[in-house]
What does this fold into?
Amino acid sequence: MDDKVNLLDLSIEELQDMLAGMGQESFRAKQIFQWLHKGAGEVDEMTNLSKSLRQELRDVSFIGKFKIYRKFLSQTDGTVKYLLESRDKNIIESVLMEYRHGFTACISSQIGCRMGCRFCASTGVGFVRNLSPGEMLDQVLCIQSDSKKRVGNIVIMGIGEPLDNYDAVVKFLRLVNHPEGLNIGLRHISLSTCGLVPGILRLARENVPVTLSISLHAPNDRIREQIMPINKKHSIDKIIEACKIYTEATKRRITFEYAMISGVNDSRGNALELAGKIKGMLCHVNLIPINSIESADFRKSDPKTIEMFKNILQQRGIETTVRRELGTDIHAACGQLRRSAVSVES
Ligand code: SAH
It folds into this structure.
């Protein structure tokens, strides 16, 4: 059935081309795009299209919606974790969080992940495939229609490495930013990467100035290599160089994510070394007390150590915050998301 095209994957221009092939006028593309981005799940909901056009669309295409397989509501902070089932029966996870400035959707970019970070649950259960642009968009649509909340911010921080699925992610950014669609501003979107340098450099030239988050987690290559194997390919210096090019091109401030792991990367010396590396950059550091996962026995740094680390950075003029932990009770927090197959319990 999937030799048909998923309408949610298409830009307005691609819809126009498709409709031109059917002898249709191009304004229909905009109508279809609007229906899709309002959440239509069936072509028959598109009541301003003729019956015959709807039939023709059904012959060549489908609307690739996820089914909500399960849903978990955090008792402590209202975070909702969704287990979404794809047409090919894989399950991915997406999260809805509420912050002071509104609702944020955390979405996945791949089914599984290839990066192998040792502290992350998304690794270890294997990589299945990339998600398509429409599948990333549909995570937002699903969350909105289920929660009846308007999503104002998106973080691509769920399962997967977005820059390992570059083309689909960039197309998704253009879809979700489109004025005829959800129209979510690029400055309300964060893309988080473990530091794939060629992807960062390409993104700098792409003209989609999203907020770039770098999962740094270590002040030097020796520590980073132990917890993030990808560092053997892209060293910290190369990542920082690419970040400087990104901020130069986009004028956007970079966020460095730093998961605080007791005894691994949280000493005074580590803080000083980190400060030395990123001093003077247009950046911000987000300290995340590491969340525990089953497959690794890393422990969170204690609050005093986190405070000390934060103070050292701040005294050196580096803006630093400690991330609020949301959704930990339902395993919806950073690094706790993983893909699974239907019938596997989460
Ligand atoms: N692959 C991308 C997107 C995933 S984002 C990336 O690496 O950035 C998920 C974020 O959560 C990343 O910053 C990741 O390093 C972090 N993370 C992973 N496991 C974690 C854990 N156990 N505790 C806290 N943060 C974790």
Notes: The two ends are 29 Å apart (CA to CA). Residues 263 and 301 are 8 Å apart (CA to CA). The chain has a mean pLDDT of 93. Residues 133-147 form the longest helix (15 residues).
